[in-house]
Design brief:
Elements: E1 2-4, H1 10-19, E2 25-30, H2 41-47, H3 59-68, H4 79-96, E3 99-104, H5 111-122, E4 129-136, E5 150-151, H6 157-167, H7 174-184, H8 188-193, H9 200-205, H10 215-227, H11 232-243, H12 249-258, H13 266-271, E6 275-276, E7 282-283, H14 286-294, H15 298-311, H16 318-328, H17 334-349, H18 353-365, H19 370-386, H20 390-402, H21 407-423, H22 430-441, H23 446-463, H24 473-482, H25 492-506, H26 508-522, H27 529-545, H28 549-566, H29 572-585, H30 589-606, H31 613-622, H32 625-642, H33 645-661, H34 665-675, H35 685-697, H36 701-718, H37 721-732, H38 739-751, H39 757-773, H40 777-794, H41 797-809, H42 827-837, H43 842-849, H44 853-867, H45 872-876
Parallel strand pairs: 1-4, 1-5, 2-3, 3-4
Antiparallel strand pairs: 6-7
Helix pairs in contact: 2-5, 3-4, 4-5, 6-7, 10-14, 11-14, 11-15, 12-15, 15-16, 16-17, 17-18, 18-19, 19-20, 19-21, 20-21, 21-22, 22-23, 23-24, 23-25, 24-25, 25-26, 26-27, 26-36, 27-28, 28-29, 29-30, 29-31, 30-31, 30-42, 31-32, 31-33, 32-33, 33-34, 33-35, 34-35, 35-36, 36-37, 37-38, 38-39, 39-40, ...
């Protein structure tokens, strides 16, 4: 990324690069200020020359890119799937000849193009593709943050003086010369343009008055001065060029003819060095374009936009035509507002929510009828929120509420306010706002009301109880039970909602049948995609709290698969985090770590900010204290600032696991007690098990007993082997007689029939510890060996060390295990190795991990080298097979 102020030479450097790109294919795009509202306009500039390669892309990617460019109809594509498609397209083009792509004036690209190209840039690794961006210093380049950067600075005073001397004809006073060099700060364009603002007398005998404008403003002002003496017809022609963003020469002259401008008007502008007319029209510098537009009167602007609208093909380019019509309107115009609304619909279909929001905002401005204006303002606010511009959305909601708002619209306004709060860092605000919106929607739209109640439940779970002012699950549950549906609910989401309400109002046992029925619905192939992406994470949370390990794994796997297949990268980080927790608690730490690496990459690419629960839990179970402590140090303030009680519960649970593994039971008890404070459906089961073990070891039997009562309510209601095995293990820790022996055996038997290897290993560990203290050394060794083997294989290092110490105490000699070779692989290499060992091809792996096939191949070469193998067949014979 080249960064620098206007006129410093970024475009010249790009041209220098392209002149020397012999043997490369070239793609280029230029951001244009008046084009910023057209979705994918910049990306289309880059990809248009290569659309002949579209059929070579995987189906979902091909369809996403074709829909984004309006080449075919389809569901609105996820913008990150469009990004993956663009990456694949460029990689495909570059297979034959390397590709260099330059993107100038990024600050004026439409937002979705900037986001998509940044996504592509961050995922370039082994592809024969180079992308160079150029952006103004003051531009918003949040999407490009973190790319390699070259700051383009001004010339040295010596070089600046030499350039200035080459541009000035006639004598110049040395003090004037020094002042111009100083004020230009070495900016080449300023050195060429600032002297034009001075008269020969001022150059020769004295300086002009200091100008308070920023340098870019002064250069633009200089261009405006050069426009002033041009003939009026020439200035109007330049205005047509300035407002016609794509530089289409034929279109420009058609508009000029509409305005009565002849071809002779071009000569004076070209002679002044301001513009080049040809098949493509190019201004000398973007500041000439902006100076032309800013110096025009409102009447002239409207006339030119009207002419451009008249000559723009309504069939081929309806959206640009609608935008020109909007800018030409002198007051409210319902017909134009209707056109803009249709353009917004097309933009939404292509996945361009920022463009849709801009069209709807303009439609709102041009609408006279107060009721219709309010509805359009709400639609614009919804689009702004979807595009990530929540502050602008809130301002539009104020406009919507200023009109004659009916009950349904008022409820939808409240709903959007709640959704904005939920998506922001103000987590505490979301549950009461969602609850209020749901109540308002009840008599108006029962289905939307129930969906909103479920969102309120989800928000309340996340908030927990860090803020006593937030609406909790109890308040939501009471409202749900009072909500009268016209017919029995049949959707999985409805069953989930009613089941959660039953948990609160009638207890877990009463709710289990309804919740299990809901989970079956969420695992059904008939589950609507929208419902899955919206609530599968909540269904997974419920499956875990029902101690249903098989359904928990199935739901979370489905969530990741659905997010990948649909290209829903906005949902993928949440899906990955859910799946990571399953892997972690089933002892699949390598798989969890691989997904953690992917989660970090996808979160960076999408700008998603999620607390790193998964990485924290993995570090705690692995006993890596330094890593876990650093993650705790960062995660706890983060979730506190978001108002996420669930995040606090998980963080302190992880600390309890870490401390129990290392035998620091007092610290573990304190952390587990803290974790149990933050959930609003009773204490989470995870920290309860840690609390029982820690309190039992410190002699706090009363505390352990209370925790066991809480745990038993949950496990008895569930009745699964996982639930009853955990209860038996926990109850055994509090027994001193022979009952402990049978309880430990029951725990091992039940947990052995589940996926939960971590819990089974711990059952063997605590049973072995109990047997050794009871003097039954031979029996203790048997279970401690199993625990040591399981925990070492899994990678639960601190628990394995506990087992090793206990074995040594029985008189057995135990050597610490050496780390496996697979630990040398990075998380992404390990994940690619696993997928390749399963038989997936490079394109299939690339589509799953949102990287190109060439990058997959590059990683596999490194995997083979590290494992000292030469083929996929050998890979399947390793631990990855």
């Amino acid at each position: 990324m080249l960064r620098g102020e206007a006129g410093v030479g970024k475009t010249a450097l790009l041209e220098y690069l392209l002149e020397r790109a012999g043997g490369f294919r070239v793609a280029r795009a230029v951001g244009v200020e008046s084009e910023m509202e057209l979705a994918f306009a910049g990306l289309h500039q880059v990809c248009a020359p290569f659309l002949g390669y579209l059929d070579r892309l995987p189906g979902p990617q091909r369809d996403a890119l074709a829909t984004a460019f309006g080449l075919s109809d389809g569901e609105p594509p996820d913008r990150f799937l469009v990004g993956l498609a663009a990456l694949s397209l460029e990689a495909e083009v570059a297979e034959g000849t390397p590709l260099v792509c330059v993107v100038d004036d990024v600050q004026w690209l439409d937002r979705v193009s900037a986001q998509t190209l940044a996504f592509v840039a961050r995922r370039l690794l082994a592809e024969r593709v180079a992308i160079v961006f150029a952006v103004r210093d003051q531009g918003d380049v949040g999407e490009l943050a973190g790319l390699d950067e070259l700051v383009v600075r001004g010339l040295s005073d010596t070089d600046a003086g030499a350039l200035l001397d080459s541009a000035i004809q006639g004598p110049v006073d040395d003090r004037v010369r020094q002042q111009i060099v100083a004020e230009s700060r070495g900016n080449p364009l300023a050195l060429l343009e600032l002297p034009r603002a001075l008269t020969p007398a001022e150059l020769a005998f004295g300086s002009a008055s200091p100008d308070p404008l920023p340098l870019a403003g002064r250069i633009e002002q200089g261009f405006a001065r050069r426009l002033a003496p041009l003939p009026g017809e020439t200035r109007r022609l330049l205005l047509v060029a300035a407002l016609e963003p794509v530089g289409d020469g034929a279109l420009l002259w058609r508009a000029a003819a509409r305005l009565g401008i002849g071809t002779g008007a071009a000569a004076a502008a070209e002679q002044a060095g301001l513009i080049e007319f040809g098949t493509r029209v190019r201004f000398r510098h973007p500041l000439v374009r902006s100076a032309t537009a800013r110096s025009a009167s409102p009447h002239d602007l409207q006339e030119v936009h009207r002419a451009l609208a008249d000559v723009t093909d309504a069939e081929q380019d309806p959206d640009r035509r609608a935008w020109h019509l909007a800018q030409a309107a002198v007051g409210p115009d319902e017909a134009v507002a209707d056109e803009l609304e249709r353009s917004a619909g097309r933009a939404q279909t292509r996945g361009g929510m920022a463009a849709a929001a801009a069209f709807l905002e303009e439609a709102t401005r041009l609408t006279l009828d107060p009721a219709r204006r309010a509805r359009r303002a709400l639609a614009a606010a919804q689009a702004k929120h979807a595009a990530g511009a929540s502050d602008a959305a809130l301002a539009l909601l104020d406009t919507a509420e200023a009109g004659p708002v009916d009950e349904l619209l008022h409820a939808r306004v409240d709903l959007l306010r709640a959704q904005i709060a939920a998506a922001s860092r103000r987590g505490d605000d979301a549950p009461p706002l969602l609850l209020r919106a749901a109540k308002q929607l009840e008599p108006l739209d029962i289905r939307l009301a129930r969906d909103t109640y479920l969102d309120a439940f989800a928000a309340a779970f996340l908030v927990g109880r860090p803020s006593r002012g937030a609406a909790g699950v109890a308040e939501v549950a009471r409202s749900v039970r009072e909500c009268c549906a016209t017919k029995p609910p049949t959707r999985a989401s409805d069953l989930l909602l009613d089941g959660l309400a039953l948990v609160v109002t009638e207890g877990r046992r009463a709710a289990v049948p309804k919740l299990r029925q809901a989970l079956q619905g969420f695992c059904s192939p008939d589950l609507p995609t929208e419902d899955g992406l919206r609530w599968l994470w909540l269904a997974g949370h419920v499956a875990h709290r029902l101690w249903d390990d098989e359904t928990w794994e199935a739901v979370c796997s489905l969530y990741v698969r659905l997010a990948r297949q649909t290209g829903a990268l906005a949902a993928l980080p949440i899906a990955l985090r859910s799946r990571i927790l399953v892997h972690a608690l089933t002892g699949e730490f390598d798989e969890a770590a691989a997904l953690t690496g992917e989660l970090d990459e996808v979160s960076e690419a999408t700008g998603t900010q999620l607390a790193r629960w998964g990485a924290l839990i993995i570090a705690a179970w692995r006993g890596r204290e330094a890593e876990a402590s650093e993650l705790l140090r960062r995660t706890i303030p983060d979730v506190l600032s978001r108002g996420e009680g669930m995040g606090l519960a998980v963080s302190y649970y992880a600390k309890a696991v870490l401390c129990n593994g290392r035998g620091r039971y007092s610290e573990a008890q304190s952390a587990a007690e803290t974790a149990c404070e933050y959930d609003d459906l009773g204490p989470l089961e995870w920290p309860l098990t840690e609390l029982i073990e820690a309190a039992a070891r410190t002699g706090q039997r009363e505390t352990a007993g209370v925790a066991l009562a809480w745990l038993s309510e949950s496990t008895q209601a569930s009745g699964t082997d996982w639930a009853l095995g955990i209860e038996a293990r926990s109850r055994a820790l509090l027994c001193d007689d022979d009952a402990a022996d049978s309880l430990y055996r029951e725990a091992i038997d039940r947990l052995g029939r589940t996926r939960m290897r971590v819990d089974l290993g711990r059952a063997h560990l605590v049973y072995g510890e109990w047997l050794r203290r009871a003097g039954r050394r031979l029996e203790a060794r048997k279970h401690l060996r199993v625990a040591y083997g399981m925990m070492s294989t899994i990678g639960a290092e601190s628990f394995a060390e506990r087992a090793r110490r206990e074995l040594v105490a029985t008189g057995e000699t135990v050597r610490k295990r050496a780390p496996e070779t697979r630990d040398e692989l990075t998380a992404q290499e390990g994940q690619i190795a696993r997928l390749a060992a399963q038989g997936m091809t490079n394109p299939e792996i690339g589509a799953e991990l949102f990287i190109s096939p060439r990058t997959v191949e590059w990683h596999l070469h490194k995997v083979f080298a590290k494992l000292a193998i030469e083929s996929r067949k050998e890979l399947r014979a390793t631990a990855f097979g």
